[in-house]
Each structure stands twice: as C-alpha cells, then as structure tokens.
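User: I'm writing a short report section on ligand binding and want a predicted complex to refer to. Could you take this sequence and flavin mononucleotide and write out the structure as tokens? A short remark afterwards would be nice.
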Amino acid sequence: MTSTIESLCDIQVPVYQAGMGGVGGPKLAAAVSNAGGLGHLGCIRRGAAQIRDWIRQTRDLTDRPFGVNLVPKGPGPDGFEAQLSAVLEERPKVLSLFWGDFGTVIPRAKAAGIVTMAQIGSVAEAERAAAAGADAIIAQGFEAGGHVGGTVGLMALLPAVLRAVAPLPVLAAGGIADRDGVAAALHLGAAGAWVGTRFVATAESLAHDIYKRRLVAAGADDTVHGHGYSYGWPLGSAYRVIPPRRRSPYRFIAGGARRGDRDAYAEGLSLYAGQGVGLIDDVPPAARVLADLAGIDPGTDRYPDALVVGGGDVQAQGDQRGSGQPLHRPANPRSA
Ligand SMILES: Cc1cc2nc3c(=O)[nH]c(=O)nc-3n(C[C@H](O)[C@H](O)[C@H](O)COP(=O)(O)O)c2cc1C
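Assistant: Sure. The structure tokens for the complex follow:
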C-alpha cells in the first residue's frame, strides 16, 4: 500500500522534486518522473504559451505524471490568471502553489481533476490551504533554499502542521538532500520529501554550471536568510541564498543563475540554496539523485520496500552513506 498522496500522484517513491522557477524545466521534471518520483516544472516566470510548451515537451519525454508549480504573487493577478488557465486546460497531474492565498485557486484546480498541493511556512497557512481543499500540504522549513515563507525549522514545523491538518498528507521541505533526510522526514510522519537544492545540482537542471559548482563547493553554514530583491518576486520577499565569494554589483540580487546567463552574473548573484547544500558533492543525472534520496542501492534498479510500501517495518537495503539503520515509514502518527 502506498500513501494517499503517492496513489493520487501515481508515483513509486515518496520523493517530489520542488517546483523551481528558472532551473526546473522539462528535462529535469521528466528525469525525476521517469525514475519513479514526481518531477515539477517551475513556471513562476513563464507566460501561458510557454507553460503549454513546457508541458508538451515534458510529455514527449515521459509517460509518467509530473507537476506544474505556480506562484500567484510572482506575475500578479492578470499574469497568474493566464498561467492558471493554461494549466487548467493542459491538466498536468499535479499543480503546486506557493506564496499567497490559494483559497479560490485550489477548488478550480481540483474541479479540473488536478491533484493540488500548497506549500506553506506556518500552521495558519496550512490550515487555510486545508480548508480550501488542498490534496496535500508541503511544510517548508526555515532551512529551505529559494524563497522561504515562514520562520520555523522543519523539525518543529512538520509535526505541528501534521497535527493541524490531519489526516491530510504533508510533504516535508527544507534542507533534505540525502536518503537519511528523507527517512527522517518519513519517520516524523511526512508522506514524502519535497526537495529543491539537491536537484539544482544535476545534469538536467537548467542552472548555470557556475551555480552547480557553487553548490558542490558550499558547506552547510554557507547559506544566509535575507530579504531583498529577487527577480520575479515581490520586493522584500524572504529567501535563503549563498552569497557570492567576491564583492559584485549583482550580490544584492537573489536568484538562480541559468544556463546562458553571463558568467560574471552567475558568479556575482546571491544563489538560492538550502541548508542541506553541505551534503551535495557532485552533479549527477537526476535519476541518480532520485535513487539516492529514495534509498535505492547503486547497481540495482529495485525500489526498497521500505520506501514503496507504507505502514511496514521493512528493512531498507544497505546504505552507502553508512547509517545502515532500517528505514520505515510509520503511518502518520497524528492522523490515526
Ligand atoms: C533554485 C530554487 C528555486 C525555487 N523556486 C521556487 C518556485 O518557483 N516555486 C516554489 O514553490 N518554490 C521554489 N523554491 C523553493 C522550493 O519549493 C522548496 O521549498 C525548497 O527548495 C526546499 O528546500 P531545499 O532547497 O533545501 O530542498 C525554490 C528553491 C530553489 C532552491
């Protein structure tokens, strides 16, 4: 038996690639979905026609379900309405929303048959999204990379949100970058892990190579939380980034440098990254990252029962990072 949200999303392992504007395009989403997780297109800055184009490109690359991520406050009301219309027509499996009040959006997406998730940073926001009918809540801890909605660390936020919205499935976001992090989130009662920064450092992400190298070089305490200018977001929105190494005119801009951006810009930006960045040592294909997060042993293509089968006390396969502890997914302790 898989968890409710895995069944709804029709995926095999409880790993969800976060929607990431600029860096999460069709190749990354398809690679994650083809590997058994849920890939996501980060569409905050895309117009309706561009969203349709990305959805079609992704469908050419995978038969598996994937999601589209929108941020209502990014493009403003008119821009958002156009984006949403494209999504409602194209009907990807999942729509995830972040930053704002989704009270009227969630029922429309659900009426179109789209599984709808809301990323939140506080218990109050989680309760509002649950009341609006969200199929799942994404609890984003303060550790997270990119824009950060709340002020509470994941370890404290997740149980509080689970309690507040039970029996709704809750995904855990922020600082998760390896299989032990996923296992810890599941152990706390999360229905899955929503992972961003780790997937930026993959072959398929649209991130600039300089950005990927910065993620590999950075340690756990290299990120800072700030409020300032970030491209495409309301001024003053809070975010977590790695500041540039040298003084640069671009350092006051938070962003995710993309392929094709000038090197000086990529070097100079404050680059989105979560506190799990210290666990990133390489830039592999996304399928390899997915396998690691899901606890699949290198050299095998089998999904470990512990991450596929819910409610059991099933031994995971060996852990190359060394914990060797059994992973198990307890039933949500707060939704009984
Ligand atoms: C490069 C980058 C871009 C992001 N862009 C978005 C976005 O467009 N929409 C969104 O809902 N979240 C966005 N996020 C936040 C993620 O959804 C998620 O909360 C975060 O990545 C989780 O923390 P982690 O990066 O430590 O895994 C972004 C994160 C990163 C790292």
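A remark for your report: Confidence is low (pLDDT under 50) at residues 308-328, 331-336. Residues 76-90 form the longest helix (15 residues).
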